[in-house]
Design goal:
Blueprint (H helix, E strand, L loop, with lengths): L15 H14 L3 H11 L5 H4 L2 H12 L3 H11 L3 H4 L1 H17 L3 H12 L6 H12 L17 H18 L7 H26 L1
Helix pairs in contact: 1-2, 4-5, 4-10, 5-7, 7-8, 7-10
Length: 207
């Protein structure tokens, strides 16, 4: 674990190449291949082999989720990362649920109900999924589900969260970092900030 005392890092220098590699890691991690290629050509950096692995296939999976095509995302994921969804029940549930939500959004309620009974019922045997299933099924009761208390399930942010989770899982399945360097830097900065706030609080209370 990193030492949280920021004074230990006062003399640590960060080069331009370090910053560029962090940016490159973020772009490739999130499948911004074209932007990454432009970035590479303008900086003279070389693309690490690991970053280029299956980026086109990951992008297709990522975009399928963002477009609400969960079944296509499942199909592509099974091709690229066999057994991933079989071993990650939470992620599989999220993708199947996303398809259910898209059927509801399209007002295909009968089809949504049939899909739910066929593909989601088994998850109801697991306590942690029960509340979520109730929310999904409740969408069927509204003529305008976008205005229901569960409206967030139909939001672009919900799709984005599922897409991000799937992307991280696919990367981890390929033994690549699940989070980009930039995300890890932000996470570390957050931990350090929390540590400093606690230390300031202790110092204030000790006076």
């Amino acid at each position: 674990m990193m030492d949280l005392d920021p004074r230990l890092y006062e003399n640590v220098s960060v080069s331009d190449n370090d910053v560029r590699n962090i940016v490159l890691s973020y772009l490739m991690h999130n499948c911004f291949k074209e932007t990454a290629e432009t970035f590479l050509s303008s900086t003279g950096l070389k693309l690490p082999v690991d970053y280029s692995v299956n980026v086109d296939k990951r992008k297709a999976i990522f975009n399928s989720v963002l477009e609400g095509n969960a079944l296509k995302a499942i199909e592509l994921t099974e091709e690229l990362a066999p057994n991933l969804l079989e071993n990650d029940m939470d992620l599989h549930f999220d993708l199947l649920s996303l398809h259910f939500i898209e059927l509801v959004r399209s007002r295909k309620c009968t089809e949504a109900l049939e899909f739910g009974q066929k593909k989601l019922t088994s998850f109801g045997k697991v306590p942690k999924y029960v509340e979520k299933l109730e929310d999904f099924m409740a969408l069927l009761a509204y003529e305008e589900p976008e205005k229901s208390p569960m409206f967030h399930l139909l939001s672009p942010e919900y799709r984005q969260n599922v897409a991000d989770s799937l992307n991280r899982a696919v990367l981890a399945h390929a033994n690549l970092p699940a989070y980009s360097s930039l995300e890890r830097v932000v996470q570390q900065a957050t931990v350090v900030r929390q540590y400093l706030q606690q230390e300031v609080g202790k110092a204030f209370l000790s006076k």
